[in-house]
Amino acid sequence: MWIGKTNPASTSYCFDAEPHFQYFREYKSRPEAKGDLTETMSLQGSFFMCTREKWFDLNICDEAFGSWGSQGIETAVKTWLSGGRVIVNHKTWYAHMFRTKGGDFGFPYPISGKQIQGAKRHARDLFFKNQWPMQKYPLSWLVEKFWPIPGWTDEDLAKLKSGTTYSYPKPTSSPEPIREERQEAPVPPVAVKAGHARKGIVYYTDNRIEPELAKKVQARLLETGLPIVSVSLKLLDFGNNIVFPGERSYLTMFRQILTGIEAMETDIIFLCEHDVLYTPEHFAFTPEKDDLFYYNTHNWQVRQADGFALYWDCRKVSQVCAFRTLMLKHYRERVRRVEAEGFSRRMGFEPGTHGRPERVDDYKCADFRTEIPNLDIRHKFNLTASRWRQDQFRNKPKNWKESHVNKLTGWEDLKL
User: What CATH number was assigned to the domain covering residues 196-407?
Assistant: First the structure.
């Protein structure tokens, strides 16, 4: 007997200003989202239906979008802008298993980030510029109908109404063109309006992680409500995904981080790894200065196999945040140096944390500390080796503490 899983269950969808598909969780609490049949701004491309006549009338699944990407956006926007409605039936149930959760379960046919970016670009050209010949309403009408919408700011809506075009990173199929673009791209000034800096998350992964752990990490990041750029070695259905071509290595990781920073448009960036569980308090912190890297020093290393937890005073890349302008300067120089000279541990991983001659630059850092710690989960696929005894360290760690993950504040009910 098959019993439909009721959680999570989705009944509302939207797309952000990129455009990129989003689950519209906030809409569920609105009065207009109650009932058996409710409107939705966008839809999930894996399951929808319309009449045969409407399919051909609106040219649904236009081949101009390519073979993969933006199907739900195309179908919904064409329906809405032509005078129709997009409805979710709450009395139905279906399941969709994504092919983007990592491991051995992937696409049985070739797929690249370039195809997906091409579909997004076509959607922007067609709908954001109001170039679709069958539309009765501008796209701004649809955005205002469902306002407020995650991933849309007042500035985004103003641009849409004024016809201002958006500028997004050009997709690449190899690391070489990325280096050429980096050399030419200037570092923009910090854009902080009325003292409120915009925050965003750059999430990077080598896709070598158990799906259940990856889902736990991603779910917590989605709860922040911050814009997310994910950079992966395989296609990933998380945030604004960029597939980076390359084999797992330290250089590849630095290139992934830089690619994400270049794609993110917020003032402040938090670097997040695929195997770290973050507390919401971590993202509440706001850097005071635009020339310092800030590290959350309250993070425990947790062994996934048995929950053994270890703490010592340290700074990690997975715990850093800073203004985007600073991150751009550092990681552009870091990638250039590693490409030219190779990586040395004397160079270090953490920006601004040491004064050795091999350092990347002369930037400095500062610390902050959350009440609830972040958890660095150590598993069988970690890129860096795990150390569990003090004698495994060259320099004796300070404030060494041992515990179990379920004894740590805020993580009493965590199951790994």
Answer: 3.90.550
